[in-house]
Amino acid sequence: MLDLDPLLVTFGMFFSMLILLAIGAPLTWALLTVGVGSAYFLWGPAGLELLATSSFSAMDNFLLVALPMFIFMGLMLQRSGITDDLFDMINKLMGGIPGGLGMGTVIICAIIAAMAGVSGAATVSLGIIALPSMLKRGYDKKLVTGTIMAGGALGFLIPPSVLMIVYAFLARESVGKLFAAGMMPGLMLAVIYMVYIFLFALKNPEKAPTIPLSERLGAVDKIKALKALILPGALITTVLGFIIGGVTSPSEASAIGAAGALVCAAIYRTLNVKMLKEVLMSTTQLMGMLLWITLAAVFFSKIYIGLGAGMLITELVEESSLSPYMVIVAMLATYFILGMFLDDFAIVFITVPLFVPIVQELGFDTVWFAVLFIISMQTAYLTPPFGYNLFYMRSVAPPSITIYDLYKAVIPFIILQVIGLTLVVIYPQIALWLPNLIFGS
Length: 441
Known about the structure:
Elements: H1 6-22, H2 27-43, H3 49-59, H4 66-79, H5 82-94, H6 100-116, H7 119-136, H8 141-152, H9 162-171, H10 175-203, H11 219-225, H12 230-244, H13 250-267, H14 273-307, H15 309-319, H16 324-339, H17 344-361, H18 366-380, H19 388-396, H20 403-426, H21 429-439
Helix pairs in contact: 1-2, 2-14, 3-14, 4-13, 4-14, 5-6, 6-7, 6-8, 6-10, 7-8, 7-19, 8-19, 8-20, 9-17, 10-18, 10-20, 10-21, 12-13, 14-17, 15-17, 16-17, 16-18, 17-18, 18-20, 19-20
């Protein structure tokens, strides 16, 4: 290997990658191009063997089987009609409360997050179903779009989260522990959103009106409306219960979830060959993208680690005058900035191999840090200029709602997420209480 300063090579690798991304190269090819070039430059032709070995080690993990299964489960439930019934139920139950439809939308987003495991599912689904209905009832467009985008981002935190599975794979953490750790912070953020919407509606009743008295239901009809929760509730409880309770592995539970989604679609009488083909094709496309990013990013990180730059940065952090908590804050700030420009999977593959050893050296709980990372990714998905949920919403919003409206709409919810992140930093037990209760300290 050439006798070069690891920090200099690190700067060259990341700067080259950012240049390629800036000129429009796909993330996978940016990582592969820089990785192959760096490996050849550092170690000659023999360095390219690392591409084969890193690819094999990345794919030789049974945990990855859970990814296509959970993606299939979410897409199947999304297209079965369950989401429509859930929103109709919320409209009947909470329409008479100030901001009730907004608060109910957050609840539906949390349920879809538990069904789908990805952020875009809830954002797109409710953008199609809830957005027109709420605008028609006189809701403020910024409140509606901000609520749907922020609620959709709960898919990162509320299990079964696909990003959590990828994080667990890279950090060698227990998926069950991460799922348990994400539950309470996810519910906390949902409650924070709902309190904000309720207070907003009290202050601005004309921007979040209640439904007319003639459309409100009695107690008996409200109880009947809850039947829409039976199928998704049973499936979510089964899948998460099996994982957290240790009955099955995440991969086995994902297969149960996929089979259960097929049963739900059959009960709703929406299962047909055409829909099945579309769901399988969408699942294949998403998994193809994820696997290519995985191979390229693991190869990139292996070069980085083999160079010794990871240890060097760890030593620099340990020798700096920053307190351990300030190091954590600096890492979270890095995530926040990266999230403005990079995909969440790119960030997790690039930073986890570097940051997790530092967190361990500083003596912090790595499960707690995983939750901080996931919340940071939630915020990143809402942060301009390239927050993905902004573009998901723009793709389904009417022409009267511009991208600048969406930028303004997410500002209050970004502030709320930063408040939630701060609470988890100050009070780690918000994230650790449930996994400690289930798995022990």
